[in-house]
Design brief:
The complex is a heterodimer. Chain A is about 70% helix and about 0% strand. By secondary structure, chain A is mainly alpha-helical. Chain B is built from 32 helices and 2 strands. The model of chain B has no long low-confidence stretch (mean pLDDT about 85). Classes of the chains: A mainly alpha, B mainly alpha. Chains A and B meet through α2, α4 and α5 of A and α28, α31 and α32 of B.
């Protein structure tokens, strides 16, 4: 689908959508949103880009294969889960928080990193599936 | 003691990295492990023979009562010394037997793994850790039996052995769990006090059968005996170590250990005596038909194991002492005979007794060892074998029922074992040396010293039975918690019935040895009966199982996605339909329902038209788009019923799904008729009834009184405990974070699956 309108729109849409996905990820703790939805939105952003500019172009934008995001995300989520054991001798998955909220991002805690892990895994998994299928179809 | 048990595991782990150093001349150094362990356990001998019991406890999973607790009493020490003692000799022997073998280091790795597992098994005081070590012995023996893994029959026997002993392991687990449940503890030493609770429990019989099943499979009792002759495909050191001295005795050990816990009268005696008796007579008769040295030894081992089970079944003090002494006797002579067989095989290249003769001229020390081993095996005075045999007759003669009958079968078994010992230990060395063997020479002392040492030990113990008595027999008798009278082991009892029986045994054995010669004709004759042997019956059973599972799989696994879906849905309809049909009440109070709003009506219309369009459109792409409409209508519905999180997720998932479908379908040909009208009607009926059932079910759920406790808990604590205001998200990342963790792992597995399936196919297509 190489239409000029979609093509020129997508070059603006990709960064905006990605920013939006991060926004959804960050607001998740207080308002509707979170890592899962954020990850899906980010995946959609890349798929939209692939539709308009071709898969190869999107892959070169991504630099690495999206599959690598999966173990990375899993690792981050896992580390945030075990961090209470390592740092403060608390049981697995206890929430740890930085006392003062940071501007823009808000309060930082282990839950945020956990959600970040989910976010990365979702992007990685859905893009891997979609890219693989579209390459072989 | 923990260190002693773990040493073997650590050594085999160490060999993974440093194996190449242990392949050549240094290989013999690995025997330092069993030798040092042997010395270590010897240091406990004075304490244990004084009646002390040494306990050691390491917590492992205390919340389940599973701990690494070890106990060293007379029984455990006997086995530990046997494992490390025979182990040392086998380790030394292997260095010469498998000299310059490509995988010698691997062999030592498996062997020390096995030794460690076996030590753990006999030292464990906790039934669960006993089970784990039990399984480890099965697994490590699998590698040892299948060591010559380039041979198909060697692989097959390894699998058979693993299968049979693996079943036994499962039975042991069942027995251990039940026993632990009844007794409230997994510690065997605590169970000793609870004997009445256990024997009176309604599960007693089941526990007994499970434990027996484990012991019988491991100790090759009839009808599970057939894996042992098969396991003789292993290199000789393995047969020596596992299949004569240690692993096959694990079942006997378990019965010994459980005697003071489970011995609850008639049923215990009946089962053990009959299984033991059948095994010992059945396999003793099999010896006559064998011409392969290892085959003879395998069947005589099974027979000896039968004797042990039989004696434990009799269960009197005399019988238990006889069993304890016989374990030592058997380990000494059978391990030596196996090692001698190994030497003969190694030097002449054959194990066929009809061809072997006169070897004493070329390997005198081996011949001496063989002769003494045969004397011990035959129970000729003044060896320990004589002491052991007398004890057996004493036990059978003084048993309360059928004493005469039991004594007669014990005598006939012993006569045949006498024959077996002489055929294996004496016959190859007697007579005229065939020309083809004249150039043979004596192998390295590493090979002939171990059997010589063991047989001489049998001679020394026979001359001084007091050694065995104070070291093992009495401490073992104490572990059995029976009414225990003082006793003395003696070589000479004076002229009495038992001496007469011994004389008869020796006489008949000698006559049998000189009249009966092993012949191939006999071996071929018995092979005709294989059709009704337990082995073939079990093999047929397993083949039948394979045929059945193939049919079953072919019926369900058609490869059509629609077929799978239909089966799943039909199954659910049947189950739910049954539930709703038998027990269903539905009350809907129409007055409490709110009025339909315009939003709801319009969403409903969108949904319906989407569904109908999906079903009836001719274009595939249009169907996908319409399916997307259905999904988006749902996310609108979620939004109206205040579930914004769900709506967002549904919205994005649906977008991606439609994209995915389009990607796949875009390149397919325009129109393909996949189903005829009949099939469509069938699928329609299936889906409509499924929909109706689910609707009814949901309405039914609404009828249930609402349980708001959980909701309230989350609403209250989401901010307090997890500092989040969005409950859904807090549950996902905090309260039930481990669930999410597992879910994203599943997601990754799915993605990898898609990637692997499609990319692999692409690659193979590219090659063409």
């Amino acid at each position: 689908m190489k239409t000029i309108i979609l093509k020129s729109a997508s070059s603006y849409l990709l960064p905006v959508l990605l920013l939006f996905s991060v926004f959804i990820l960050l607001r998740g703790h207080y308002l509707p949103g979170g890592g899962f939805v954020g990850g899906l939105v980010a995946a959609i952003a890349f798929v939209l880009d692939a539709f308009s500019n071709g898969l190869d172009k999107t892959k070169s934008v991504l630099k690495i294969h999206p599959g690598f995001l999966m173990p990375l995300g899993l690792l981050i989520a896992f580390l945030s889960g075990v961090s209470p054991i390592i740092f403060s001798d608390l049981p697995l998955m206890t929430g740890l928080w930085v006392e003062n909220p940071i501007p823009v991002i808000g309060a930082i805690g282990s839950a945020l990193f956990f959600d970040l892990g989910v976010y990365l895994v979702v992007i990685g998994a859905s893009l891997t599936i979609i890219f693989t299928i579209s390459e072989s179809a | 003691m923990l260190g002693a048990v773990l040493l073997g595991f650590l050594f085999s782990l160490f060999l993974v990295f440093a194996g190449s150093y242990f392949r050549g001349k240094l290989a013999v150094l690995s025997s330092l492990i069993p030798i040092s362990l042997f010395i270590y356990f010897l240091t406990f001998l004075p304490q244990v023979s004084a009646g002390e019991v040494i306990y050691e406890n390491h917590e492992w999973i205390p919340s389940f009562g599973v701990n690494l607790s070890f106990t060293l009493d007379g029984l455990a020490l006997l086995f530990a010394l046997m494992i490390t003692g025979v182990g040392s000799l086998v380790f030394l022997y292997t260095a010469a037997y498998l000299k310059d073998h490509k995988y010698l280091d691997r062999f030592y790795g498996y062997l020390s793994l096995f030794m460690a597992a076996m030590l753990g098994l006999v030292l464990s005081d906790n039934l669960m850790s006993l089970f784990i070590f039990w399984e480890l012995t099965s697994i490590s023996s699998f590698y040892l039996i299948g060591f010559n893994n380039d041979k198909a029959d060697s692989r097959k026997s390894a699998l058979t052995a693993l299968g049979i002993t693996g079943i036994g392991g499962l039975l042991l687990l069942g027995g251990a769990v039940l026993l632990g449940d009844v007794a409230g503890t997994y510690r065997i030493s605590e169970m000793l006090m609870l004997r009445d609770v256990i024997t009176d429990s309604p599960h007693y019989l089941l526990i007994l059968l499970l434990i027996f099943g484990a012991a019988f499979t491991k100790s090759a009792q009839f009808p599970f005996h057939f894996w042992l002759p098969g396991a003789m495909k292993a290199p000789t050191p393995v047969s020596t170590y596992l299949h004569s001295a240690t692993m096959v005795k694990a079942g006997v050990y378990l019965l010994f250990r459980m005697t003071p816990v489970l011995n609850g009268g008639e049923i215990w005696h009946t089962i053990l005596i009959s299984v033991g008796a059948v095994t010992m007579v059945y396999s003793a008769f099999h010896i006559i038909f064998r011409t392969d040295l290892k085959g003879i030894l395998a069947y005589s081992t099974i027979s000896a194991l039968g004797i042990l089970v039989f004696l434990i079944g009799i269960g009197t003090q005399a019988a238990l002492i006889a069993a304890a002494v016989f374990i030592v006797v058997h380990a000494l002579y059978k391990a030596s005979l196996f090692l001698i067989t190994g030497i003969i095989d190694h030097e002449t290249g054959t194990r066929d007794v009809t061809q072997l003769a006169g070897l004493r001229k070329v390997m005198m020390p081996v011949a001496i060892a063989g002769f003494v081993a045969a004397l011990i095996s035959g129970g000729v005075p003044p060896t320990l074998g004589f002491v052991g045999k007398d004890l057996i007759y004493e036990a059978t003669l003084h048993f309360k029922d059928n004493a005469i009958f039991l004594t007669i079968i014990a005598i006939s078994t012993n006569v045949l074992l006498f024959y077996a010992g002489f055929v294996a230990g004496v016959k190859p060395f007697m007579g005229k040396l065939p020309e083809k063997f004249e150039k043979l020479h004596l192998p390295s002392p590493l090979m002939w010293l171990p059997p010589l040492v063991m047989t001489l030990a049998g001679l020394v113990f026979g001359l001084f039975p007091g050694l065995i008595e104070s070291a093992f027999a009495k401490p073992i008798a104490m572990t059995q918690a029976i009414e225990f009278e003082d006793f003395h082991l003696k070589l000479w009892h004076g002229f009495n019935t038992i001496l007469g029986l011994s004389a008869i045994t020796l006489l008949l054995g000698t006559v049998l040895y000189f009249t009966l010669k092993p012949k191939h004709a006999l071996e071929n004759a018995i092979a005709k009966l294989d059709v009704i042997a337990p082995k073939d019956l079990l093999l047929k059973l397993s083949e039948g199982f394979a045929v059945f599972s193939r049919l079953w799989t072919n019926f369900f696994q058609t490869g059509y996605l629609r077929h799978y879906l239909s089966i799943i849905v039909a199954f659910l309809i049947l189950l739910l339909g049954y539930l709703i049909f038998t027990d269903f009440s539905l009350e809907i109070d129409f007055s409490t329902l709110t009025e339909l709003t315009i939003y709801e009506i319009s969403i409903l219309l969108m949904l319906l038209s989407g569904v109908l369009y999906t079903v009836f459109t001719k274009s595939r792409l249009a169907a996908v788009a319409a399916l997307g409409v259905v999904g988006l209508s749902f996310s609108l519905l979620f939004l109206f019923y205040s579930a914004p999180d769900l709506a967002m997720t549904q919205f994005s998932v649906d977008t991606l799904t439609v994209i995915l479908f389009v990607l796949v379908l875009y390149k397919l040909p325009k129109y393909l008729k996949l189903s005829d009208t009949g099939l469509r009607i069938k699928h329609g009926v299936l889906s409509i009834s499924f929909g109706i059932l689910i609707t009814l079910l949901i309405l039914r759920v609404l009828n249930e009184p609402k349980n708001t406790e959980i909701t309230e808990y989350y609403a209250e604590n989401a901010y307090k405990l997890a500092r989040g205001k969005n409950i859904v998200n807090v549950i996902l990342v905090d309260f039930r974070g481990i669930d999410t963790m597992i879910e994203i792992s599943v997601l990754i597995v799915a993605a990898l699956g898609v990637f692997g399936l499609l990319k692999l196919r692409l690659k193979s297509r590219d090659k063409k």
